[in-house]
Amino acid sequence: MAFQNKAELRQYVTETVRTAPISDIHTHLFTEDFGNMLLWGIDELLTYHYLVAETFRFYPELEYEAFWAMSKREQADLVWKTLFIDHSPYSEACRGVLTVLSRLGLDVASRDLESYRAFFASKTTGEYIDLVFKLSNVANVCMTNDPFVDTEREGWETLEKVDPRFNTALRIDPLLMQWGEHTWKRLKEWGYDVEKAVTDKTVEGIREFLRHWIRKMNPLYMAVSLPPSFRYPEKTARGDIIEKCIIPVAREFDIPFAMMIGVNKRVNPALGDAGDSVGLSDVRAVEQMCSLHPDNKFLCTMLARENQHGLAVAARKFRNLHVFGCWWFLNNPSLIEEMTRMRFELLGTSVTPQHSDCRVLDQLLYKWDHSREIIANVLSDKYGDLYDTGWKIKKKEIRRDVADLFGGAFWRFLGKPNPIEGAGS
Ligand code: RAT
Ligand code: ZN
């Protein structure tokens, strides 16, 4: 039955977006098998690096080392006192903590940190994973699997089967960003016949390394975070490794190369993970990549707000490019709204408007709740514009489109079946 008015249409869109299962295509979450690498609970939520950065702003005299020397619980206490009690917690990262508590049924009004701690202490990891997946209605997440991290590499040695709710992504930053400094030595230690120069022998060694991890992890894509200075093609070890190793191996296994571009790493190293910043990047590099390698697939997200329009236009030119997410400093309501509106106008449903980037499992609850609300609003406006032309949108078409935006378009781009059963029907 057709919608009688725009209010009815909006209500249906909102409900559909609120309840659609999601494939979250980029997170830093892990399965239970990886032990401590999977972060969850109130102390992890409060010490999320986004909140650590905000806390330091209130203490010009606090030594960075003094903060890092505190226990996790002490750090969380300080963040709570500073950002939630001494000041109002309306920054997006703070608000997120409160959304999580509220979604778990905890009494946010009580401001009783100890009672929240008691709630988490009563849960086992397995139980809590089930609960968060259920409450967030996220069907599956993609991990960030970095073989250069020792604990992760060791984890893979004994892992037999990966929990099907967790997909894998092979993350290769050190291969591209620090080859000449130390990565070549690590590969050599691991038995690959490589040298510092990117010679034919090195190329073959790196390819073997990639093949080994792709066979082991079965990743959906290979990913890297790149600085604003990234150009392509470029006459550097990085440019050579991309061209001679990443591109052919990605094609061999038919997986995309995901470029996350725009991070100025460690502008304030004392802040640790919170010390990275943003810079304007070159969309032309992405266009060149897509143009020079038409038989490869590329995923891309960029960190600077100013790059978003160019990137969406690039995706109109290159069908081997799939744009995703409102990344990191862009994951704020005002910017999600602006970017989503612009992307829908330029790309229709052939985009993945959001990923969560969760580092703490519980964050699935807030990141997706907040984004669902914005996406529903933008989508309602867009269908409303169609309604005004006399176009009669059907409910099943809305369900189809929403399923595309929450993973369907991504899986189609990969050329793999969407694991969410009956998605969009
Ligand atoms: O958003 C973040 O947590 C960042 O620290 C990064 O991890 C970023 O998302 C990345 O994947 O490099
Ligand atoms: Zn990330």
UniProtKB/TrEMBL annotation:
It comes from the Bacteria. Keywords: Isomerase. GO terms for molecular function: isomerase activity. This is Glucuronate isomerase. InterPro entries: Metal_Hydrolase (IPR032466).
